[in-house]
């Protein structure tokens, strides 16, 4: 067991068989060794800095029907909303005052937000806050659409691959294409975005082999960011009675991803904080180095309901900022308010800051 962890630490690599063995046989002592090594690796790459991103959840309309998701098209109970361009700009303004130098614009796949509207939003944010980075997370769109938004000033794009096992993907995403989602990630990279892949831990019927598929996929893709969180059931979906992903499994996977991809930006997700009061802190101690406090207006927060028990739905943006900074400091880390680009990009000077 130690040999595999040492190999991960020294070579940032492991074979399929080694990863399966590791996940199937990890005892408490080895797990704590794994987490120490992941922490050590992050200290070498990013130090004790934790990057802040202001999250703007601007629409919960979605044309997709992902089985696990509370804002899926088929959920008639969802109370739908869209923020106006002005409301989004106000969130950006509040975020800038709170020191967030990256905005994450996230939403369901909502055809209302055409390329023209997205270009208008991106252009206006960049005109007012030229030094701030924009991360988009709007799901699958055409190459031309991604390109127009990039040319308008978007910097990064989060598109979790969700699961790297085709059969599981098909079961969870009726009518969607496994190949198209992966193709989108390649298109985004080709256009010039910093890309973020990612997956859920503890999906119904997910096996160790499936998780290892995810690990090997992200190792090969080498995304600049990787969003990993536990699956959490939502009461209005077909998966409502399933078990969710555990804190332990999610932390273990975060630690392995830090070792496989030492330079990756790795969020301690809201979902992790939702299954355990100190889930995000434990994630940060296992190699995670990004948090995404919410900037959305409080009156829409609980409508962006992807899963049950989501935290931080009532707090004003300033309160979220204070709360998260306190948590990061108490865990022994420091908030970093810069743009927080991927360190490899900064080294290769792909950025024109
Ligand atoms: N529509 C965009 C997309 O498809 O990438 C972004 C929004 S989508 C709701 C954001 C992420 O929420 C998904 O990538 C998925 O991994 C996560 N998510 C959705 N339902 C979830 C659940 N029940 N538990 C945990 N995470 C969930």
What does this protein look like?
The chain is 45% helix and 12% strand. It has helices spanning 2-11, 16-25, 28-45, 85-97, 115-128, 143-152, 166-172, 178-191, 208-221, 247-260, 270-275, 279-285, 298-301, 317-330, 343-347, and strands at 49-52, 54-59, 102-107, 133-137, 156-158, 194-201, 225-230, 290-291, 334-336. The strands form 2 sheets. Strands 2-3-4-5-6-7 form a 6-stranded parallel β-sheet. It has a 3-stranded parallel β-sheet with strand order 8-1-9. It is globular, with a radius of gyration of 19 Å. It has one domain (40-336): TIM Barrel (Alpha-Beta Barrel), CATH 3.20.20.70. Strand 4, helix 6 and strand 5 form a beta-alpha-beta unit. With 353 residues, the protein is α/β, with parallel strands linked by helices. The structure holds S-adenosylmethionine. S-adenosylmethionine binds at residues 68-69, 71, 106, 108-109, 137-139, 159-160, 162, 200, 229, 231-232, 234, 271, 306-307. Keywords: 4Fe-4S, Iron, Iron-sulfur, Metal-binding, S-adenosyl-L-methionine.
